[in-house]
Amino acid sequence: MKPNIRIVRFLLVPVVLALLAVTLPADSTLAHEIIQEQQDDGARQGLFLGVSAGSGGGVLLYKDGSSSITEEAKKGGFGSLRFGYAFSPKFALSLEGFGFTTTKNEEDWEIDAVFLATTFHPCGSGFFLRVGMGVGDGYITHPNSGDKITLDERMAFLFSIGYDWWLNDHMSLGLSLDSMGIDGGGASGFEDDGVGVGGLVVQFNWYL
Question: pTM for the full model?
Answer without folding.
Answer: 0.76
